[in-house]
Amino acid sequence: MGLECNPERASRLCSEGQARLLRRVVQLTNKDVRAPSLLPGWTVGHVLTHLARNADAHARRLSGALRGHDAPKYAHGQEQRRREIEEGAGWQAEEIIADLRQPVES
């Protein structure tokens, strides 16, 4: 079976995945987001913040591509990525969840 370009399906799948994620995290507490994740050195808060920032990064890339530009995922590279994830991981659970609910920035 060949690969098919179907932007509507891709968009729907992304929206469905976002809804599933939010259903899973909505009840998380501050204790939960401070707990270790399965990723070495990262808490659950790190992982959730990474998901939010990664969505923003992909939206920037897509937005740039639609305008004919090769936009970087992070304007200031991996150091920006690291800093944003580290900062967000320290937020309260309700702030992290609200961050995940925000529309992606492009």
How would you characterize this protein structure?
The chain has a domain at 29-101: dinb family like domain (Four Helix Bundle (Hemerythrin (Met), subunit A), Up-down Bundle), CATH 1.20.120. Helices cover 65% and strands 0% of the residues. It is built from five helices and no strands.
Write a concise synopsis of the structure shown.
With 106 residues, this protein is mainly alpha-helical. Helix content is 65%, strand content 0%.
**Approximately how much helix is present in the residues?**
55-70%
- How far apart the termini lie comes to 33 Å
Overall pLDDT score: 91
Decide which structural class fits the backbone: mainly alpha
Radius of gyration: 15 Å
Q: Can you summarize the main beta sheet?
A: none
Unreliable segments (pLDDT under 50, ≥5 consecutive)? none
Instruction: Please write the string of helix (H) and strand (E) elements.
Output: HHHHH
* Tally of strands: 0
CATH C-level class of the domain at 29-101 is: Mainly Alpha
Tell me the CATH superfamily of the domain at 29-101: dinb family like domain
Question: Strand portion, in percent?
Answer: under 5%
- Number of helices, counting only DSSP H or I runs of 4 residues or more: 5
Structural shape: globular
CATH topology title of the domain at 29-101? Four Helix Bundle (Hemerythrin (Met), subunit A)
The appropriate CATH architecture of the domain at 29-101 is: Up-down Bundle
